[in-house]
Design a protein that fits this description.
The chain is α/β, with parallel strands linked by helices. It has helices at 3-6, 43-50, 57-67, 73-76, 86-94, 118-130, 140-146, 153-168, 182-185, 188-199, 203-210, 218-229, 237-240, 244-247, 261-274, 312-322, 331-337, 345-353, and strands spanning 22-24, 27-29, 53-54, 80-84, 100-105, 134-138, 177-181, 252-257, 280-284. α6 (118-130) links the parallel β5 and β6 (134-138). α3 (57-67) packs parallel to α5, α7 packs across α8 (153-168) and α12 (218-229) packs across α15. Residues 1-17 have low confidence and may be disordered. Bound molecules: tryptophan (TRP).
Length: 363
Amino acid sequence: MEEAKLLPKDTEAPASVAREQNVTPWSVKGEVGEDGEVKAINYNKLVEQFGTKIIDDALLARFERVTGHQLHRFLRRRIVFSHRDLELILDKHEKKEPFFIYTGRGPSSDIMHIGHMVPFQLAKWLSDVFEVPLIVMLTDDEKYLMGKMDRTVEEYEHYARENAKDIIAVGFDPDRTFIFSDYEFMGGDFYKNISRIAKRINRGTADSCFGFNSSTSIGKVHFAAVQAASSFATSFPFLFGANRLQAAKIPCLIPCAVDQDPYFRLTRDVASQLGYTKPSLIHAKFLDALQGPGSKMSASVEASSILLRDSPKQILKKITKYAFSGGQETLEDHRAKGGDPEVDVSYQYLRFFLEVCACSDCQ
Ligand code: TRP
């Protein structure tokens, strides 16, 4: 959901797969058809490629049962569609054993758009419903490492601080929430875990997981260990206790956009080697840009997304001026065939963000 990664750059993918859909933490691109048009992301194919599982009706029903809460609309509406080991977290909850929620944001600019809010709204709900700690990692180091050569560390520190304000506005419980910037928090048990992880991931594995090659900076390669380290309770002794053996058994649930999955595939492999519990994941779909499915949302392109700082008037203008319509070309056609809500941006935005009454018609 990151604007930088939605731009057509730096994919580092082999040229031979350029026309197939390509989803990595740095590039989200639908399949390019014969006519050059970019298609919508095929999520079922991603589940197959990444080896994750679809969240099915039975799992949703169990989720609702064990929490005793109506499911969040992202779950009800299949915006969160895939998972790894979600059952294990529900087991923990049933047994009243501890776990935590972990999510993050790469602060690539001081502006965030509504698509960025999906994992945070979900993380808030999960932390509230399960009554467990929430960790929010701001990866200012990641975005510095991925950014252009003339950008400074201080710029990214500033973005992290600005983004933190937008993220805090989601309304987390301050007593259960820890938000940090990598530059500020680096050191201690967190850094020890980073070393433990980095030692166990070799170049070959990182290259094939992320599409790195010999021109990739060592910083970018190493960062995989940083994002991984927050998945482990042993990184945060002030939250989970100094007893490493006990903390090693405390898992986390990571709500994220599905492009982040490669990081956590590596994390899960390393977890077993370290004797830590593997993180569980739930994956969200991407919010389409205003131009419709297959287009790229970018906080730096005015017409592509709704920014958190936009006024209601600006939002109205953007929707009426730019939002792709699923309606037919003519009124006659529209009356005969009806619109297509799957591609209609206004409909999709309401599907993501409009909470309605709990009756079965309004799910
Ligand atoms: N790499 C993510 C980004 O670019 C930020 C991030 C760090 C993250 N840890 C995470 C996202 C955990 C989801 C879950 O935005």
